[in-house]
Amino acid sequence: MSDATSAAPRRSAPGATIRPHEAAHFGNLARDWWDPKGSSAMLHRLNPVRLAFLREAIDLHWAGDIEGAHPLAGKRALDVGCGAGLLAEALARLGAEVTGVDAAPQNISAARAHAAGGGLSIRYLSGELREHDLGKFDLVTAMEVLEHVGDKEVFLGLLEQHLDDDGLLVLSTPNRTPQSRLLMVGAAERLGFIPRGTHDWDDFVTPDELADLLAGAGLIMGEPRGIAWRPGKGLHLSDDLSLNYIVTARKR
Asked: Superfamily assignment of 20-251 in CATH?
């Protein structure tokens, strides 16, 4: 697969969250997003790890029934940077009324088709988040998105605006460390585990930086958990934050 970023300038308009070259890159992956052995195979491996963290966070935040199959019943969820719906469909199955927003129209088309095939009612929209009058949500997620957006302060401010006063925000993003440069940008893309051109290491955000960005948006960050990788175990939640981490946030 060709590198969709190579011919495009790495720019976005001031205050914009979408970078056109990023949207084009991920749009080119839409056709096999749902293939667990395709270009998005790593996301399929990552999704259960994110869901394990998310389920625990949901139960703790709303003091719900940890045995219940639908802990998000009666709640509205917004998945920003939803891709073709991998997480959005899981949120719907947990009982939420789900809206997914993505920069790439191709991803939204694939998401709508897959949801319809599975009998799921999910509202999908493409474009800048600020373009849509969506209101407030109980749960807002942005998984592996922050490293791809243009103006990170604006982006997090928009997430805060869409979060209900008692809502829960969950984000995951790579950490900017020597380990992530070596393994995620170097080895993983070179060996084909992640499509080439997916990451720019300089755009990775450390947990301390994210805490400051969230504070600037009026949000308090919870304790981050690492998403680590180990031979024989694969991706898993860990105290090691050096590659990737996932975290909650709430309004002050």
From this structure: Vaccinia Virus protein VP39 (3.40.50.150)
Convert the pLDDT of each residue in 184-212 to its tens digit: 888 777 777 788 778 889 999 999 999 99
Q: Pairing between strand 234-238 and 225-230?
A: antiparallel
Instruction: Enumerate the domain spans of the chain.
Output: 20-251
Question: What is the reported pTM?
Answer: 0.90
Tens digit of each residue's pLDDT (9 = 90 or more) over 129-171: 999 999 999 999 999 999 999 899 999 999 999 999 999 999 9
Mean of the per-residue pLDDT values of the chain: 91
Distance, CA of 208 to CA of 165 (rounded, Å): 24
